[in-house]
Amino acid sequence: MMPERDGRPMRERMLAGDLYIADDPEPAEQSLRAMDLISAAA
Question: Per its UniProt entry, which superkingdom is the organism in (predicted)?
Answer without folding.
Answer: Bacteria
